[in-house]
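Q: Start with the shorter request: fold the first protein.
A: Done. Sequence, then structure:
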Amino acid sequence: MRKSMIALFLAGVLVPFAAQAADGVDAIKQRGTLVVGVKADYKPFGFRDPSGAVVGIEPDLAADVAKRLGVKLELVPVVSSNRIEFLQQGKVDMLIATMSDKPERRKVVQAIDPPYYSDFVNVLLPKKAGVKTWAELKGKPLCATSGAWYNKEVAQTYGTEIVAFDGSEKPLFALKQGNCVGYVYDQTFIQGKLLDDAWSADYEMPLKGILDAPWIMAVATGNESLMKYLEDVTKDWMKTGFIVSEEKKFGIEPTEYSKAMYEKMKNSTN
């Protein structure tokens, strides 16, 4: 039983919660801790450093929110398949977890506008595969992450067979084991993975990105005070170029969206 519990913990199914989510900005300040759901398997947006701490662009954004509120920060690792559930169950106050902006998600969470980021979908492929176009993937198995909104659309549009796993480590392992021809996922994640020598030597991202989609932060439906607070914070990140500087800090090329929003907002007086 103990081994089973440890395995669930390591898989991210069970996580320790030192605090339950608070309802609104005043409640968070009174509690003294902001609880944020972030990815821990998505370099450079959220990953574990050699000490085991969760670091990355989104933990830095969460830390900035906590600093502005004058409270401590608690990060809770989430995966695509459980992040909304964690928010609805009150296990986190908010999500900054690479979540694309989709109508079905806006029906069950309170999205923060404007979206703080935007990214394409792409495929991590072995160099030896020699794949140069999406059409060449027809009829071939693609590893994927469970819960990714584009899995079905990629399968229908390009005729691929989607083989989905929880998180990102399992599909990457399956790719290395030769169980699929490539790993379809967010383009920035693949860019981050190719920063590692262990992947850049034998893998590449030769295809043109597709399905560009904004990413949203989210709070529980009805949490109006935290929603309004985060909307103002997001605009300030764009005005100051904070997200562009975070992309550069973690070694990825700033996206067209982050650069465009900085240019649009940098002289704003609001």
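Q: Next, the second protein, separately.
A: Sequence, then structure:
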Amino acid sequence: MTATGLRRFRGPRQARVARCELCAEPAGEDHGHVVNLESRALLCACRACRLLFDHGAGARGRYRAVPERYLYAPSFSVGAADWEELQIPVRTAFFFRNSALDQMVAFYPSPAGATESLLPMETWERVMKANPMPADVLPDVEAFLVDRRPEGGTACYLVPISACYELVGLVRLHWKGFGGGQEAWEAIEGFFAELRGRSRVVPAGAGGQDDDR
């Protein structure tokens, strides 16, 4: 995602009315987003514009609406050896299909922004085979957000891509020094607590098609 798309998540919300970046009309406080597939930018969108590019409307082309599906798989498991093979140097990363490249890609939040990590596909496919998740994940706009908990265990969330960049923005905003600092970790834990609260739980072993999108 570009710096333009990420900037909206870096600071406190501004008092001015958010406007749709497609038609300039007021978008509302809880507006949705669309992804510009050419620039990889995330744009605020009013309801009318978002519906134009909704997957259900069959839209194709430059823009794609970001859905609002939140799933939580607490039984998701990634061992230390697999995580090391995935080459993710931190506890959290997100994975999504880039339609332009026609392949899965991996990023992790860092104080410098979203950092891409070369994804070994064989390892990724092995992890996903061991952890069935819904197969109807939309490219570019939905992502698997994997968090290896400090107390042990791993959780996986299927989220709108905008949620991943909200986490990246929190890290950029609050991270201090080498370890991040208490403020950063409180913000990160608060983000995941809110994510769990709004997500529907995926039972262990569930996969296939999901209608909650």
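Q: Describe the second briefly.
A: Strands lie at 32-36, 41-45, 63-65, 71-73, 92-98, 103-110, 113-117, 142-148, 154-160, 200-201. The first strand starts at residue 32 and ends at 36.
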